[in-house]
């Protein structure tokens, strides 16, 4: 569906969740899940509940992005969510290429699944 106005074009985009994708494609495990979706990280993670519950993901590398004033709250929310799903937060690497006077803040966060820590993959 295409809708136009003076200043922008609006597209209707159909989306899915990782849980639905994993089920539809009969995926047994995911070694590394890289998430870089410019601000919708928590919403994405809510669509991974079944996949996380079944410990199908070994490692998650997620970029967290938001406005500076919201960043710390969002960071805590995502870390807490993943820790409740049996993941250990290992490290973060902040992106300092964002201009100092920008309103944006972002960083990469590495998590490992507790249940997979003693396997040969690690």
String of helices and strands: EEHEHHEHEE
Count of separate DSSP helical elements: 4
Write down the Rg: 17 Å
Structural class: alpha+beta
The CATH superfamily is known as Vaccinia Virus protein VP39
Overall form = flat
Q: Would you give the CATH topology? A: Rossmann fold
Q: What's the arrangement of secondary structure elements?
A:
Layout: E1 2-4, E2 9-11, H1 18-24, E3 30-35, H2 41-46, H3 49-53, E4 57-67, H4 68-84, E5 87-94, E6 104-113
Parallel strand pairs: 3-4
Antiparallel strand pairs: 1-2, 4-6, 5-6
Short description:
This protein has 122 residues and is an alpha+beta fold. The protein has helices spanning 18-24, 41-46, 49-53, 68-84, and strands at 2-4, 9-11, 30-35, 57-67, 87-94, 104-113.
Attribute tags:
122 residues; 4-stranded mixed β-sheet; alpha+beta; two-stranded antiparallel sheet; 4 helices; Rossmann fold
Explained architecture:
With 122 residues, the protein is α+β, with helices and mostly antiparallel strands. Helices cover 29% and strands 34% of the residues. It has a single domain (2-116), classed as 3-Layer(aba) Sandwich (Rossmann fold), CATH 3.40.50.150. The protein has four helices and six strands. The longest helix has 17 residues, at 68-84. It starts with a strand and ends in a 9-residue tail after the last strand. The mean pLDDT is 87.
